[in-house]
Amino acid sequence: MLTFFKRYNLTILIGIIFIVIWALVTKYATWINPVIFPQPLTVIESFSAKIGELVTGVVSSMKLLIPGFFGALVTGIVGGLFFGLNKRSREILMPYFHALSPIPPTLFIPYVIAILPTFQTASMSLIFIGAFWPVFLGTIHGVLLIEKHYLDNAKSLGLKGPTFLLKVVLPASAPHILSGASTSLGMSFLILTIAEMFGASSGMGFFIQYYSDFSQYHYVLAGIIFNSIIIVAVMIAFEKLKKRLLFWTNLKADGK
Amino acid sequence: MLTFFKRYNLTILIGIIFIVIWALVTKYATWINPVIFPQPLTVIESFSAKIGELVTGVVSSMKLLIPGFFGALVTGIVGGLFFGLNKRSREILMPYFHALSPIPPTLFIPYVIAILPTFQTASMSLIFIGAFWPVFLGTIHGVLLIEKHYLDNAKSLGLKGPTFLLKVVLPASAPHILSGASTSLGMSFLILTIAEMFGASSGMGFFIQYYSDFSQYHYVLAGIIFNSIIIVAVMIAFEKLKKRLLFWTNLKADGK
Amino acid sequence: MVQLLERPVPQQNPISAEDSTEYKTKIKVQHIDFSYDATTKILNNIQLEVKEGEFLVFMGPSGCGKSTLLRMMAGLEPFSNGNIEINDKSVKETHPDCGVVFQDYSLFPWLTAQANVMLALKQRNKKMPKKELAHIAEQYLTLVHLGHAVKKYPGQMSGGMKQRAAIARALSYGSDLLLMDEPFGALDPVTRIQLQDLLVQISAEQKRTVVFVTHDVDEAIYLADRIVIFAPGKNGAVTKSIQVPIEKKGTDRKKLFENMEFRAFRESLLNEMNEQIVNSLRTEIADGAGI
Amino acid sequence: MVQLLERPVPQQNPISAEDSTEYKTKIKVQHIDFSYDATTKILNNIQLEVKEGEFLVFMGPSGCGKSTLLRMMAGLEPFSNGNIEINDKSVKETHPDCGVVFQDYSLFPWLTAQANVMLALKQRNKKMPKKELAHIAEQYLTLVHLGHAVKKYPGQMSGGMKQRAAIARALSYGSDLLLMDEPFGALDPVTRIQLQDLLVQISAEQKRTVVFVTHDVDEAIYLADRIVIFAPGKNGAVTKSIQVPIEKKGTDRKKLFENMEFRAFRESLLNEMNEQIVNSLRTEIADGAGI
Amino acid sequence: ACGNDEQTSKGEASGDYEITVGLSQSAGGTLVDIAHQEGYFEEENISVNRVGFANSADGLNALQAGKIDVGLTFGTAGPLTFIANGSDFSIIGGHLEGGHPILTKKENAGQYTSLESYKGKKVGTIRIFTSDIVFRSALEDAGIDWKNDLEIVEFKTGSMLLEAVASGKVDVAVSANSFYAQAVDMGLEAVAWSNDLQEGHVCCRVVTRSELLAEEDGEAYKRFLKALIRAERKKIEDPQSAVTAAKEYMKVDEKVINTIVNDSHSNYSSDPSREKVVQMWEQMKEIGYVENVDDIDVNDYVNIDLYEKALNELIEQYPDDVYYKDQLVRFNEQNI
Ligand SMILES: Nc1ncnc2c1ncn2[C@@H]1O[C@H](COP(=O)(O)OP(=O)(O)OP(=O)(O)O)[C@@H](O)[C@H]1O
Ligand SMILES: Nc1ncnc2c1ncn2[C@@H]1O[C@H](COP(=O)(O)OP(=O)(O)OP(=O)(O)O)[C@@H](O)[C@H]1O
Ligand SMILES: [Mg+2]
Ligand SMILES: [Mg+2]
């Protein structure tokens, strides 16, 4: 705990300085729009006023996010390994991947609503779509960048099938897969605000979206801060995991 | 040209099969909603009806996208190198990066409109924000994963400053930087639809957003297809560039 | 000196039972021309036959194509001109069954020494329980004096340790063909001698065919039945086979090295190589191909 | 045999002008204890002084810590116990000025051989035009017989070529301290001899201090002023310095090797090492530390 | 490029005043377009630029931040929400009243005969959109507990709502005028219109920042309103002119434009309609769309003087014309 504070003392200090400046500016600068720049105190009040709603929101959001993100993770990695290893399939379909991956997830909303049976599954699918591409493309990239040495080694040991995948391809491409997964995780949170634009009545994204529709930015900011805390916690856990999985790279030298 | 067709014959075939199925389903399946699933012929007609608008759109969008994306690329790489190399700074600010990166770009709209002088700069900034994170975080990741050998080598040669950056850090982390940049590029196109929600009267994103506001999906699909063609062209060019820059990795063996 | 492990695959060499004096051909290299790119030719019409159970050593100046030919034999370098057959099957079609030690002894850095060896073991012993695999892997590592480092990752090993782990892995793979590219290059002289003896013992007792690259003349003569010398030339390297004329069986190492016959052969070998390098330096000036 | 290039830095050795017989201390290793992790101790209270212009050779069993000590001298391995001073400055504070050849000769794979060398050259010759740098780099590469491969990338070079490129880079760096970790390990005997001679010539003429790791006893004796033998032990390796008692200046290589004095010293050295390995194997059984 | 510079070049060659009008892309700016087409702005010596927004909140933010001078088609609820949150906006005129359909699938259309028939149904609405407020307060007035007797699902945009009702995820959709044409194509039918629920309810209001009205007593905005009043008249006399005027800016088919600008349920009126605005404010309080606003008197934020002045000037200019006099009568009914 003490080491935590020691490591993050400057982090916390910067946060405090930022809040102080924010407080001063919103209080004394008249040219500041009070609607979109509420005072920190207002935000803190909003925070405590809405804490129940925020917490319920996390629970509902997780019900969408977890299936969506993990579904994307699994299919992204499996698909990425497949297309990374199969040159011909990759060559054939890569143009489609390039074409489909940047389509804004918002545009899928009518289709997921029309096709999928419930709002929940529609929302999950949106998260899935958004989270899928980074990890999928990251995995393909990672497989393509595997050092020739490792592949030669595997070939000469006659490694095939699951052993080849699990013991060689997966670890060797892990740096890129995990970097893609981390983008995917961020993406999932981002897509939440889109996926909760319809059919939801609570959620981390819903909260932000809802109050921003009402231009109640003190609530919006409270929501962003609350979400950020959760996202940072998830991300730090993910980074820890990443560091463990990539122990054989230089990352371990990062000393955390 | 012939080799192009030979390489992509299956790609093209799949596209044709898909269009045929689409045509059949939208024509004969009665349970299909004709507004959100228009017939391919309608889309093609819409395409030719709006071609002028689409082309103007590309020009306007590029005026936003190019500064936004390249701005993000440069600052993302420079910033990523800085934070990748400076452990203490990274430690201090990383929690903020994790917290800020997944904030949905839509939420920045009121702020960019309020703070920046023109709608153009506001839109550019949105694209900048969206494109910044993947390349920034990718660069940090790439720097952290540089093999110890290379760093030892650089250290023992006393490499410092620009030489160290340009000859060692940048190439060694290039695989991750470029993978991040490619996500950023996709992201820029995605953010376009958000960045052109205000103040724009033409643009690739505007077109799609505009017609989806009217639920005119034949135009929306025409827009998506048109944009996809452009995005695929840009992406293929980018992949070519990537392969050239990463000539020393295994990527060259991918034989293109 | 070192007790050999039980071979994981029992019926490795059915023909060894016949005890026939007429050797079967293990590797057949036919008309191999090779170059990585259009500008430099690496190998020039290489012809080579390796008998079953033979111990073949490649020698030659640095950069002349020894590793390249070895990698081609291992089915890792695609080629178009000529053919290489192992057990009468072209390596182009069937991936050859062989244990390989690469010049850069590349282990998988995400696996411990033991897990690296287990990976090879598992290929022949699919059904064997993990515990037993681990045990055998440890025995192989002990064989190369790495019994204390089974749990170490490649990143935590010294150059020589990595090399020995790679040797253990190749041995444990249990193929009757071993392709080894400067496997003892980073070993101290004492360990090196021990591993040389180990290799001689294994190849003799189990009739494994070995193709071995080294730069150490003594090592080459001590190990080889036949030495193939690579000579770089304008159109790529050509090879020249020299049968080692010395009877080594049962001879004490030290005595052997002091043997006049041995020393004479050693001298002639060195002279041969020296000549080639001078030749190649001369050609280099003329046309840019080189050592 | 090979003409030395003009040194890029003219006033490299101001004291060589004095021609004093009293040597300055170049490297001072004091009470070095080292371990990578809590379980295994690597180095045990190492004490060592290297005189300016001295040619020091490290020998010892694989995995005993030679590379580790060399890396510590190069300022690449942080440590807490003891101190290492180069030119009277602690390597903990000032990054030492030295040319290094790593055991895995790691060149930058995204640069050609020439560009790799130019990177080192540029460090001392900031102002030199690129063309001239390229020219000098090419000369250095020619020195190690890589004149034909200047434009090759590391991925296109053989093991021995990479090693030679790394040597060229270290030489071109122009520091008066060279740390070389098994630099000739992957070279054919003929090239190896040429480069040995080159190194002897350079170190003598330019009074460069060299710390050199090798497993080749002949090479060690031929090159060294003093040989440091590493002996692994329970609490990490200890070292023992042995002055090479043979006068080599001007002696023909072949004659030297046939010299009885030489052969006796060689024998004693090998025995010493052999003993240590047997010892260490014995300790290993007792407490798990090992070679 | 953004609408900004493009439209600037299209604007009148020169004017004494320059006004940048922000409008919602899907609603268009019918009266402004007509005024433009007919040269009313030119005659008033003002040049007007048009800036489109996909989202009312963004538009109102732009207004707050000074990027635009007038918000034309951002509804009533939007500006009122901003006012509730502390923005100093003034509603100076009107644009549209009524016109939003309540949609359902054709086969279910018969079920919805009265407000009672919404009980137990899943009703989709567009959040903070006028029709939502009108619908809820109509239920409230009819004594139906809309929190419990039916399930209201809020949507961010009208197009999402449309997909939801078409795919049966909600039973009825309290929609918006700009989606009517597509809804019909999708096989949906209007079972009621927002005007049926509340006669002449206000929709888009002309809103500006109060501080702008301090300059020259709001001369520019008075001129702007004069042009709008004339455009309103033009539209009544020649409905087709609205289509031709809008066609220049709205890029959808003429048929769609016609349903948006000339639907019989939509009433384009430039009158600020203060009483209806106040009524909506009260309704918003009632259904919880605005909270903690007891210290705000919404009347302070509706400026009817400018409109009155504009009307009087027009009467003066065209003394023989009864139209403007009638408008003054309507003004007095609706505002005082
Ligand atoms: N991937 C490659 N691309 C292009 N050229 C290559 C490649 N690999 C090796 N070469 C070239 O092929 C030649 C032979 O290389 P090879 O590794 O077979 O040499 P070698 O005989 O094993 O040398 P050494 O004793 O130094 O290991 C060298 O000249 C090298 O430059
Ligand atoms: N990064 C590391 N982490 C943990 N242990 C390490 C690491 N690097 C080396 N070691 C251990 O330190 C010991 C000494 O290694 P070092 O590389 O110095 O040996 P060496 O004498 O150079 O051997 P060789 O002759 O084989 O190159 C070895 O036992 C090795 O396992
Ligand atoms: Mg080789
Ligand atoms: Mg070493």
UniProtKB/TrEMBL annotation, chains A, B:
InterPro entries: MetI-like, MetI-like_sf. The chain crosses the membrane at residues 7-25, 64-85, 97-119, 125-146, 189-211, 217-238. Pfam families: BPD_transp_1. The keyword Cell membrane applies. It is found in: Cell membrane. Signal peptide: none annotated. Keywords: Cell membrane, Membrane, Transmembrane, Transmembrane helix, Transport. Residues 58-238 form the ABC transmembrane type-1 domain. It is a multi-pass membrane protein. The keyword Transmembrane applies. It comes from the Bacteria. Its main location: membrane. Belongs to the binding-protein-dependent transport system permease family. This is ABC transporter permease.
UniProtKB/TrEMBL annotation, chains C, D:
It holds the Pfam family ABC_tran. InterPro entries: AAA+_ATPase, ABC_transporter-like_ATP-bd, ABC_transporter-like_CS, ABC_transporter_ATP-bind, P-loop_NTPase. Residues 27-257 form the ABC transporter domain. Coiled coil: none annotated. The lineage of its organism: Bacteria, Bacillati, Bacillota, Bacilli, Bacillales. It comes from Solibacillus kalamii. PROSITE patterns: ABC_TRANSPORTER_1, ABC_TRANSPORTER_2. It is a peripheral membrane protein. One of its GO terms (molecular function) is ATP binding. It is found in: Cell membrane. The keyword Zinc does not apply. This is Nitrate ABC transporter ATP-binding protein. Keywords: ATP-binding, Cell membrane, Membrane, Nucleotide-binding, Transport. SUPFAM superfamilies: P-loop containing nucleoside triphosphate hydrolases. Gene3D superfamilies: P-loop containing nucleotide triphosphate hydrolases.
